[in-house]
Each structure stands twice: as structure tokens, then as C-alpha cells.
Amino acid sequence: MLRGTWQRLSGWDVAVTRPLGLLLLVVACVLGFVALSDEVHEGETQDIDERIVRSLRRPEDPALPRGPWWLAESARDVTSLGGFPVLSLITATVCGFLVVARRYRTSLFVLSAIVTGWLLNSVLKSLFNRPRPSVVPHLTETMSTSFPSGHAMLSAITYLTLGALTAQFAEHRRVKVYLLSVAILLSVLVGCTRVYLGVHYPTDVLGGWVAGLAWALFVTVAAKGVRRHSPALREEAHRPVE
């Protein structure tokens, strides 16, 4: 009897507690983003934002970044990992792999989740319409407004969503940890380069990270729910890759 009760409680924990915990994290991220965006809109963060951006340039010439000569070029290379062309290629590659592996529904879900997140970023940028930093010269080209950082948010959406969804196919915990760690590292590096290159304020990047994380967590919860109610998706998830 006790064993049966424990099994029921364990099943409830897996089915309810974990998704509920993820949803609470989503709510926390959304509230954090709202609070941050309110501070940005009121100009409360402008002074500290500008100080940080200036501190990354040499005092004698704001056009020159601090650090060795190769760091700026490396930052431009890394920041491209959060650009639309690279993220589109990565998304297409992963979705193509899922199609080849005959996980058609999973591929469609992944593509829809990421593209919808990209559209959300466009809506948020248009809504806040924050100008780019003007206190230092930009070290790379820009084409949109500043808050939230598109590179930070899109990289978080893409890498964290792909990392979380592909980790669900992994059997060993160490593989899951590795996939998620790489996804987080890429998102962090991309966001940091945006500030170093002078094209975003730190709060732009922070806002992009928080919004991207919220979307990735929401997609993870949605994937669990859809798979639980879809026999076809459950069958795909357990089908070995041929």
C-alpha cells in the first residue's frame, strides 16, 4: 500500500510539480521583464547604462575598446552567432535533422516555437522603441531599436529552446546538462559582445535574456503538455534515430 502511494505521488510530481515549477519560472521572468522595462522607460537605468558602456572604451579615445587588439574582432565573430542569418541556418539544420529522423510533428513544433519567439522580439522592439547607445561609436552595424536586445533575446530563444527540446531526447543526465550548458553559454557570450561593441546598453541585453528565457521555458512546458496529450508525439519522442 505504501509503495503504491509513493508511486502515485512520484507520478504526480513528474506530471504536475515540474511543469508547475517551470510555469512559476515563466511568471517570474515575465514580472522581471516588466519591472526592468518600466525602469528603462522611465530613464532610471540610463546613467548606469552609459557608465558601463563608457567603461569598456579607452579614456583617450572612445572609439577604441579596452583589451587586446584581437578582442574586438573576436567579439564581432561571436556576436554573429546571435544574428538572424546564423540562427536561421541553425534552426533549419535542426528541423531538417528532425525531418530526416521522421520526427515531422516535432520539427514543426520546434520551427513554430522559434519563429513565434522571433516575432515576439520584433513586437517588443517596436513597442519600446529605445534608441541605440550614442555615448560611444558602434563597432558593428545595427538596423533596429535597442530594447530588448534582438541578438540576446533571439539567441536565448533559439539556443535555449533547441537545447531544452533536444535534451528531452537524451537518455543520460550528463548529455542533458551538456546541451543546456552550451545553450546558456552561447546566449551569454552573444549578449556580452553586444555591450562590448557599443550597440546595446546592459539593460537591453538583460531584458533580451529574461524575455528569451521566459519564452524557452514556456515552450518547454508547452512541449511537455502537447506530448502528454498527443500519442503521435509520444511515439516520435521514443522512436530511436535510424
UniProtKB/TrEMBL annotation:
Protein name as catalogued: Phosphatase PAP2 family protein
Domain of life: Bacteria
Recorded coiled-coil stretches: none
Keyword Transmembrane helix belongs to the record: yes
UniProt domain Phosphatidic acid phosphatase type 2/haloperoxidase: residue ranges: 106-220
Keywords from the named record: Membrane, Transmembrane, Transmembrane helix
Positions of transmembrane segments: 20-37, 78-101, 108-128, 148-170, 177-199, 205-226
Gene3D superfamilies: Phosphatidic acid phosphatase type 2/haloperoxidase
Pfam family, any one: PAP2
Organism listed in the record: Corallococcus sicarius
